[in-house]
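Sorry, explain these tokens?

***
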Amino acid sequence: MEYAEDHYLFPLVREPHSRWEKAGLSPRAERSFNRVATLLMAVFLTGWTYSIFLADATGDRSPVATISRSILRSPLAADAPAEPAFVVDEFVRSFAEDFEADVRGQSGAVNVAVVRPGEELNVPASTDSLPGGASVVLQPAQGTTGAQVDATGPTPSAPGVWNVMLRMADAIRPASDVSVITLVPLSAKRSGRIGTYRVGSWPFERGGATKPIYEPPAGLVRVTPENQDLYLSEHVQLKDFLTKGQQGVWPKYVALQPKVLDKVELTLQELGRMGYPVKNIFVISAFRTPSYNEGGGNTAGRASLSRHMYGDAMDIAIDNDGDTRMDDINRDGQVNVGDARFLAEAAERVEKKYPSMIGGIGVYTPTGAHSGFVHLDTRGFRARW
């Protein structure tokens, strides 16, 4: 006798639906068991949560209370368990690496992202993997007035310096060493001033610029006594960009383009490869307000379209010994124009390695005030003097 299907050889046996049915429980008994188990779990969780709050209220330090607290504690807390803290550290490392990739520049030494109010940051997609209740926020730094905002949304409308932080529950910690700077729009200027600070007007402020590089800056950085020491890059502070004069007037305002910071830092790194490691620089001039550029101090040699007005130029000297004068960086036993030329040679090498850094390089001989310095800018085309 033949069979069409093998299963006709054996009796059909239905597989049990659950482990409880395997143990001999009927479907009805299993449903009852599940209801009782769920009720017991709810009672346990309620009692456990209540015991934690009671322990906090009474100061209970028993092992059970301590373990219970550690399970609910924010991993950002200083006394968080090692495992959650390790996970957070790994997230911060990954986030900082992705977020800072574009901000740090070719040199890897730039510390700021400069944005217009309301502009969105390029926040890494890794924030999507944050645990529930955690977020990356922008927190106002000292000297900045404003409320904390989510870093994944529009940047704050208030001008100033913001720290990038990771927040979870009531704990908060830095998520990056990069600071975010929101600008003051030029529309805030009235009769050549922002508040009581005299700025002046750019040559093509009302339009008609022959090249994009001569268009007025997108906005200005608000500088206060509290934020002026901020390191914009490894060797440059915010106060290095301040225009001379108006000492007692605060806040002050500067135009700032991070690209020039990158060029300066690349030049200093190249100088180190040429045999002179740099610890400190002296900034003779960075941003100059249009008002100062036109009539402040000695105006000899100033161009009417000076790159200093646009925040992408710096005049620097190497000053490891801190005497505010150029060092003997070519090591010929004297400080003269040869040291400025040595610095300029480092900048030339940078432009050859990084074509995006092409701009102006000017060598200045020693004067009564300075022992020589070099002008660097990122105007986008080659200029030498």
The chain has seven helices and 14 strands. The radius of gyration is 32 Å. Residues 1-14, 62-72 have pLDDT under 50 and may be disordered. The longest helix spans residues 27-58.
